[in-house]
# Entry
Amino acid sequence: MAGKKIPSSYSGWSKPTFTNIVKTNKDFRSYFHSAMLYAHYELSSNELKREVMVYLKKIDTKHPLLTRMEKLDEGRFVTIGKYMYILNHAGEIPDDVMPKLLSALEQVIDEEEVKIAAREKEAENIERKNQTDPNFDRSSKPTVSIQDRIKEKTREVAGEVEGWIDDYTTDKKLPVKTVEDFINLFKVNELKAPHTRFMQDIFEGRVDEIARAVEGKDKELVEAYANYSKTELKKCNEFNQNLLKACNMMQEVAKIERAPRKKKPVSQEKVVAKLKYKKDDNSLGIVSLNPVHIIGSKEVWLYNTKTRKLAQYKAADECGLLVKGAGLQNYTTDSVEKTIRKPVETLSDFKKASKVKLRTFMKDLSTIDIPCNGKLNEHHIILRIDK
# Structure
């Protein structure tokens, strides 16, 4: 709400009677708090900055802080401006605040100047870099960030919410806005979850304050809201709670409707990266095929040069054989391996065998069938892959 002034029709806070805001008054704290609330809701950021400058000019027309704060963002002087607004109108502020006021103002100015200097330095570095870039378009306008766009859009709708508050304050007989009313307002203005999160930030302080006033435990707040009846105060609290509920609902709906993040497909090379195998065997004259082609294949033949076992893996379904870690998956229970007695002759016959011959090749071997376990190691040659 920085920079935004509440419309003059808003009558929630009466203009302070500054003669009552003196420490000798037994109700000083109550009057002081009411004046601070009035300044918070009725004065814009620009007006509060002017109050700071008026206060400094009363001390010294050429006060050094005047020049320093002139070009700084008015939103930085909102809090200090409220205190100085009271002082400028002959009111008083608590003893624990007064001695720290000017030092706090100077600290705010120091911090803002550091930020500006950092931004200017960053801009200079970018400009210096762009000057050496032949592709830089000097006619292009500076881009507005997505966050800035979200905040600007949300502030516009927050103004409409403020209008609803003004209407209710003027006519307390109006019905309280429901959660559905707020949601419809958000949808009409095409607000999304990020907008409603920022909307919460704008109103949370006021919502909490009203809620505490309803509880009645904070005497100062109870006195500050004395112009409201208990029923009216509860309605204000209901209004605020409905606003926050609508914001939360918009965010929850966005979570549900958000499409699940698609997993990035893993490359086949990465899938088989941990698969161990032997690239070739010169003594037998055999060379391994690329293990990448095993993925999705119908059948794979392997030969273990150490144990002399020939293995035949058959795919269990249309997905074909799969590779996970250092082994094969999704093969049938009748995938078996057999020991070869004469490797040179048997493997020579295997290389010459047609598809028809391979159907019975394993059965023609006289050794015992051993169920495949899916594991490969550095002794396995990948003889054949059928897609």
